[in-house]
Amino acid sequence: MILALQTADATSRLWLIDEGSTQPPKPVSVRESGRALSDELLPQIMAVVQERAIELQDLTGLVIFSGPGSFTSLRIGHTVANALAESLKIPILGTQGEGWLKDGLQQLKGAQPGQIALPHYGAEAHITRPKA
Length: 132
What we know:
Layout: E1 2-6, E2 11-17, E3 29-32, H1 37-51, E4 61-65, H2 71-88, E5 92-95, H3 100-108
Parallel strand pairs: 1-4, 4-5
Antiparallel strand pairs: 1-2, 2-3
Helix pairs in contact: 1-2
């Protein structure tokens, strides 16, 4: 079972995809997280997994939308996804563009555990600069 995540804006979307599935996947969870993404993403993942009566250990890979999108939303999504992939010792792949999920599922077939997915913000991040 593959978990896919899209957290590029205020709405988080999750997919659970059987590895041999030929059907176009539809999100199994869509949640308007707004500014609560850091509090709600992991419980959202756990709820989806429990609804499907599977365990996190049943996941064989992760695909995440890497951007462009909100700096904070992408960072939170990638942090959670990378931590899950590392703890479960499964591969993770970050992809971009309209066909991100299809591309990610295809590329995941050759991916190895131990890599990380990095966000692509699409522009320079607007963050506070350190004080001198």
